[in-house]
Prior knowledge:
Elements: H1 3-9, E1 13-15, E2 24-25, E3 34-37, E4 51-55, H2 57-63, E5 68-70, H3 74-82, E6 93-94, E7 109-110, E8 115-116, E9 121-122, E10 127-128, E11 133-134, E12 139-140, E13 145-146, E14 151-152, E15 157-160, E16 165-167, E17 173-175, E18 182-184, E19 189-190, E20 195-197, E21 204-206, E22 211-212, E23 217-218, E24 223-224, E25 229-230, E26 235-236, E27 241-242, E28 247-248, E29 253-254, E30 264-266, E31 271-272, E32 280-282, H4 291-302, H5 304-323
Parallel strand pairs: 2-3, 3-4, 4-5, 7-10, 8-11, 9-12, 10-13, 11-14, 12-15, 13-18, 14-19, 15-20, 18-21, 19-22, 20-23, 21-24, 22-25, 23-26, 24-27, 25-28, 26-29, 28-30, 29-31, 30-32
Antiparallel strand pairs: 1-5, 6-8, 16-17
Amino acid sequence: MKSSSIAKKFNLISIGNDIEINGVSSTSHPNENTIVLMSSIEKLHTKCDNLVVLTSKKICIELGIENALIAENPRVAFAKITSLFYSSPVFNIPFSDNNSSNFENKNISYGENVSLGKNVVIENDVVIGNNVKIGHNTVIHKNCVIGDDVVIDSGTIIGSEGFGNVLDDNGKWQHIFHSGKVIIKNNVSIGANCTIDRGTIDDTIIESGVIIDNLVHIAHNVYIGENTAIAAKVGIAGSCKIGKRNMIGGMVGIVDHIVTNDDVIISATSTVNKDLKEPGTYTGIMPISKHTIWKRIALWITKLDKIAKLLNLKKILKYDRIEH
């Protein structure tokens, strides 16, 4: 596409030559006939004549860029432009052309433009909306509901049995069989090798606009609010309610029945063991340090309770002497 056509499509301002564009590249490895994102003031590592820089008006003026696409939010504009040069060979089999042996073939409802990878398994009473893409080796268990414009990457399991168990009088585990659903609303993106458990009785619900990275586990009865982003290796235990527009960093662990407010950010590797009642950024980790130093820190942490009691005792004795 010509750079002028891209500008028109995404409501950008085009400056300089009208260049034929065949892809995107980075500032560290720029290529001819591509668009490079420059959201901060930096230098291109190689000079390219037939190159268009996507940036802000301020940066364009400061750096004197000759060929540019000007955007109010260059990063958002770049994300939209990448769709022009991306194709997904993974999702290339129309639903109707798949081998029916992979499906239970009982009350499966699906909309238009649904495409699948290989070895997809879909059980009874599943509802799938329009424009849905499901990757290789994905399993969608019975009664699940998938909305419109949903992408589910390879190896993900939707509607698996939740980890609900109780100890009986003999000290043996009795499993609670789960009859709830997983309901995934519109415009949700789910990465590879994720697991979303069905609800015990009520449903597990993923609201519209949620994006989920690879290797994420969402347990039974969890509710994820609109436009929340969840990074890789996050584990969310049962019956949590995550607010809207939360940003959950990689390897975060959230214990069961936690509630988070809207607009909460949780730093990577944090452990969340209490409700987060106000918007803001939360961190529940210790700074990394050399192992020998950490051992000394850990030793002092185990003694904090005794130190606090000792300090409190000294305080009491001090006040006692003053009174006398």
